[in-house]
Amino acid sequence: MSQSQINNLDEKRDFEVNSSNLKHVRSFCREVFEKLNINQELKDELVLAIAEAAQNIVKHAYKNEETEDKMEIKISVSDGYLEIGFFDKGRPVEKDKIRHRKIDDIKPGGLGTFFIQQIMDAVVFKEGEKPWINHLILSKNLNS
Amino acid sequence: MSYKVTEEGNISTVYLDGEIDMDVTEKAKEVIMPLIEAKKEVHLNLKEVQYMDSSGISVLIESHQKATELGTKVILKEISKSVLKVIMMAKLEQILNLD
C-alpha cells in the first residue's frame, strides 16, 4: 500500500510552548498529512487550523510568558475521520469568553478562532485529565 | 522570514520571503511601519510568502489602516496562492488593496 492510501493513523508530539516552536508544529502536521490521501488544499487548511490552535495556547493559555511547559498535539485518523487533540498545562480556558471577532469588524486580531471554525467541523474544549489542564479537540470528516 | 526593501521615488517595495506567523510579526512591522510613517506608498510583494496565519493577516490590516490614517496606501503585489486563500478566508479581498 502506498503512503497516500493510509487512512488510519495515530501520531503525537510534544512542543515547547513558545512562538518560535510554531514552525515545528507546522512541520509535524505537514509530515503527518503527507501520509493521508487528501488534497494539498485541504492539507494546507488543516495545517493552518492546527497552527492557529497552537498559537492560541501560546497567546492565551500562557499569555506569551516564558515557560518550560510543553504542549502535546495528537493527530488521529480513523476510517477517514480526523481528530486533533491539543493538551496544555496553561491557564484554564474560559469557554464562554472564546469567540472570534465579527468578520465585518475590520481590525487586527481575533481571526485565528474564526479560521479554525471555518476549516474544522467541530471544536470542543474539555477539562484536561491530569497532568493536563486544557484539552481541545478539533475534528473533521475527511470523507465528506 | 527574510525581506528586501527597494525604493523608487515615493514608493517603497518590501519583498517578504518565507513563512509569516506570530513569531515574525514584530519583525515584519518593524520593517513596514516606519515606511508608512514616512508617508511612503508601500508595496508588499508576497510572491515568496508560502504561509501566512492570522498574525500575518493582522500585520496587513494594521499596515492598511495606518496608511489610510496617514493619507498613503499599502498595495499587496504578486500575492502567492496560499496567502490569497487566507486573505479571502478572512473576507479581506475587498478591504485591502490587492494588485
Structure description:
The complex is a heterodimer of chains A (144) and B (99). By secondary structure, chain A is an alpha+beta fold. Chain A has one domain: Heat Shock Protein 90, CATH 3.30.565. Chain A is built from three helices and five strands, in the order E-H-H-E-E-H-E-E. Chain A has a five-stranded antiparallel beta sheet with strand order 1-2-3-5-4, covered by helices on one side. In chain A, helix 1 packs antiparallel against helix 2 and helix 2 runs antiparallel to helix 3. Chain A is globular. Chain B has 99 residues and is of the alpha/beta class. Chain B has one domain: Transcription Regulator spoIIAA (2-Layer Sandwich), CATH 3.30.750.24. Chain B is built from three helices and five strands, in the order ββαβαβαβ. The longest helix of chain B has 16 residues. The mean pLDDT of chain B is 97. Chains A and B meet through helix 1, helix 2 and helix 3 of A and helix 2 and helix 3 of B.
Helix content percent band of chain B:
25-40%
Average residue pLDDT of chain A: 90
Q: Enumerate how many helices of chain A there are, as a single number.
A: 3
CATH class of chain A: Alpha Beta
Number of strands of chain A: 5
Q: Uncertain spans of chain A, ≥5 residues at pLDDT below 50?
A: none
Mean pLDDT of chain B: 97
The CATH superfamily of chain A is known as Histidine kinase-like ATPase, C-terminal domain
Q: Which fold name fills CATH's third level, the topology of chain B? A: Transcription Regulator spoIIAA
Widest β-sheet, arrangement of strands of chain A: 1-2-3-5-4
Which percent range describes the beta-strand content of chain A?
Answer: 25-35%
**Which CATH-level-2 architecture of chain B?**
2-Layer Sandwich
Q: Determine the N-to-C terminus distance of chain A.
A: 23 Å
Low-pLDDT runs of 5+ residues of chain B are none
CATH class of chain B: Alpha Beta
* Secondary-structure element string of chain B: EEHEHEHE
Radius of gyration of chain B: 12 Å
